[in-house]
Amino acid sequence: SEQYSRLQRLIRLLNEHSHKQESTREQERQTKLEDQVKSVEYDNGHAQHKQLVSKESNDEHSQNNQPFIAEPGTNQNIKPPSSQPVESPIVSLGPDAISGIESKINEKDTVIEILHLVNENSVKLEKDTEEFAALALWDFAGQYVFYTTHQTFLTRRAIYLLVVDLSQQVTDLVDDECYLDAEGIKLCKVHELAEIWLNSIHSCAPSSRSGIPPVILVGTHVDKIPEKSRQKVIDEYFMKIRQMLKDKPIVFHLMDNIAIDNTQCDPRLGDLKRRIFELAEKQPHWGEEKPARWLPLEQAIMTMKASGVKVASFSVIEEINRSSSIKIEDREELEVFLTFQHDIGTILYFNVKGLNDMVVLDPQLMIDALKSLITDHRFIQQNPTVTKEWYAFNDKGKLTHELIDAIWTKEKKPDFHDNKDYIIRVMKKLHIIARPKTYTRDGKS
């Protein structure tokens, strides 16, 4: 197919780019590697020394450390505050690795080849004392109409900020048309909407009282509260929220209360950042070790996303993996890799029957596709040919293919049309939409 051919060309470009980079960096890396090696002894061509030690470090290190790879994200690197000095990393080769390498290594080996051997033989890399992670920021719409889509994107590998308006009362009614009764009367209060969000987050929890994932309560519009009573109002607001949730398991997710004034450079923004760092370091997946052989495929996926590829079939991902000199071993491990990438927000991959044949490389595609189906009356003014279908959807929840096609044509997003079948399958699987039951004359469904 056209998509497959495009990806094949991309694979070739990736390989050509990789070889070009290897060639230009070979001398620099070789020099650096030689500078790091403190001592390696040879006896009749056999390696006797079992450690490659950076020349800045004189400490002895255990060979029991496991490979460490920081979790990837989609936006930017973050570094938690640290007062500890940075130590040089130690690379240790166990006896099995040495025996496998000794017959292959020689003075003419390039650094890339050495690194390949290192990866293949599970070289052990000690973590730097200053740890880094990649930060991916997601901004969720708070309206109830998006509630059913939350499960598509929420994950336990995250820290959540539940943002509330401190200028309102927790018992105020929410200005959301989805919370209206038949007579147009508002039904939902602020604290009830907060509870709905917390229930969504709680659905990701490994256990009912684990406190994972953590939630920070962030209050905004501090400037609208009279300065004289400001701190009292803030404290009472957060206390009321917690009291209303005290008998429910979702309360275990609430960690901190932080009030922010966005009209000025509020020093409490720094407090919020530091608290995010602290909570991140305490999560069970912080510093989680992953196989180094995952890196080439991860880089390939990032390159595909950057080139505009939004969706790929599982078979194409398999082909890209097979084309790499360092590859993921089998389908089972590939599924684990893709599930991990899904959990950290890099891609969307549902490892369930009916959905595991495709990988959404750009999650924004799914977000935009679902969001586009939530339309207002202005859509009908511009698309009178589907007036009947729109009112059936708006009033009765009946979604037709004709309406979907009309909406996506208006959006001018060909990727929606190209992946319509898969998007609809995802919506069905996650119970965002459902096919109505039909019955035969004898009453069977």
UniProtKB/TrEMBL annotation:
Biased composition annotated in UniProt, kind: Basic and acidic residues: 15-46
Gene3D superfamilies the UniProt entry points to: P-loop containing nucleotide triphosphate hydrolases, ROC domain from the Parkinson's disease-associated leucine-rich repeat kinase 2, Winged helix-like DNA-binding domain superfamily/Winged helix DNA-binding domain
Stretch list, region Disordered: 15-88
Bias (Polar residues): 63-86
Residue ranges constituting the COR domain according to the UniProt record: 291-433
Name of one Pfam family that matches: Roc
Keywords: Repeat
InterPro entries associated with the record: COR-A, NOL4/NOL4L, P-loop_NTPase, WH-like_DNA-bd_sf
Protein name, per record: COR domain-containing protein
